[in-house]
Amino acid sequence: MENWKFALSSIRSHKMRSFLTMLGIIIGVAAVVLIMGLGNGMRQSVTDSVTGDKDTVQVYYEVKGEELDPAYADLAKPTKPVKEVWLEQVAKQTPGIDSYFVTNSLTSSISLQKKTVKNVNITGASQGYFKAKKLEMLTGRSLQDNDYKNFSRVIVIDQMVAKKLFETNEDALNQVVTIGNNDYRVIGVYKNKDTAIGAFGEIGTALVANTQLAAENNTDPIGQIFFHVTDVKNSSSVAKDAAKRLTQLAQDDNGAYKAADMSSALDQVNTIFGTITTVVGAIAGISLLVGGIGVMNIMLVSVTERTREIGLRKALGATRRKILTQFLIESMVLTILGGLIGLGFAALVVGPIGNAMDLKATVSLGVAMGSIAFSAAVGIIFGLLPANKASNLDPIEALRYD
């Protein structure tokens, strides 16, 4: 305890010098913690976009002998087209499933007079889509039964498309926009929580009836098949059961229906982001090395300045071990204080930076504890040489030092 008091007293008596010494540690710890927090936020964001809604599972058709990425499931055409009655039967007979929906899609531009939003993902959705997705409507309404029965040319756009075409979300209601050669009336604007980033910035999305999209663009009304599960813990097994039942109903000798398994994709995502975070974190960690050298330098100066003090302590009976411990503690206190300041700064800014990047970035307890432990280790490693020099001073020569 006495050594800790000596260390704090020494730091207080040289405030500016101590702060400049800690600056490298502060910057290093703040950079590493910030990168780790943002990296984990990016990883979680990509993971969420890959897995999608956890209570919704996808079933796709796969030709025998071929392995298909579920993201391109609508490219494989079954010999026998899927019937809605099959999907209804699977939803009713498979425990753990309460509903289903299907989609088809295309990429097109949406125009309003002289304004155009390019590369919009137009999703044709069946009626079950809106209930399963629980979309947050910012204004207007979603598609209803009559829209499907009457083949109404109506569309629901996301907030990004609305912003580019209209001044406010409310201004979009009942306006007529053009997709290809067809006009659609905007009936609602919804909040898209999974906005994708393309080569030219954010990619907008819009929703229409899947039957309408199929009729006007010569596509299948059923491109992708999804089932809504009642318990996300059983989603994997439930999806396999649904795929098996659908295969039995289809009686297709050329292929079978499979449940989308995103585990391999998630492994790749985690590997990529883990590597990126490690490399960038290591680069940022170089500043910790520089900070450690600064600590060693200032501790050597401190040993020189306190040579007579060391000689006096040794003359009064202080052992080599006590002198060594005292200077190691002083070095460690410097780096721990720098680490705490850097950690505090990173914790304050990681949230706002994450929000600006639309990420849920936070500093985990493990990263926080690791940064402090690493700071202490830097203090011990780089303080060892000055401490050893101090402990090896000859007391008589030290007392003569002027």
Protein model, in words:
- The chain is α+β, with helices and mostly antiparallel strands.
- The strands form 2 sheets. It has a 6-stranded mixed beta barrel with strand order 2-3-10-5-7-6. A two-stranded antiparallel ribbon has the order 8-9.
- It contains 14 helices and 12 strands.
- It has helices spanning 2-13, 15-51, 84-93, 128-133, 145-149, 159-165, 169-172, 210-217, 235-250, 263-305, 307-315, 320-356, 365-391, 395-400; strands spanning 56-63, 97-112, 115-125, 136-140, 154-158, 176-179, 182-191, 196-198, 201-203, 205-209, 224-229, 255-259.
- The chain is elongated, with a radius of gyration of 32 Å.
- Helix 2 packs across helix 12 (320-356).
Question: Keyphrases for this structure?
Answer:
two-stranded antiparallel ribbon, 402 residues, six-stranded mixed barrel, alpha+beta, 14 helices
Helical percentage: 55-70%
Give the averaged pLDDT, no decimals. Answer: 82
Distance between the termini: 30 Å
Share of β-strand residues:
15-25%
Radius of gyration: 32 Å
- Biggest sheet strand order reads 2-3-10-5-7-6
Sheet with the most strands? 6 strands, mixed, barrel
Count of separate DSSP helical elements: 14
Structural class: alpha+beta
Unreliable stretches covering 5 or more consecutive residues: 197-201
Global outline: elongated
Secondary-structure element sequence? Answer: HHEHEEHEHEHHEEEEEHEHEHHHHH
**DSSP E strands, number:** 12
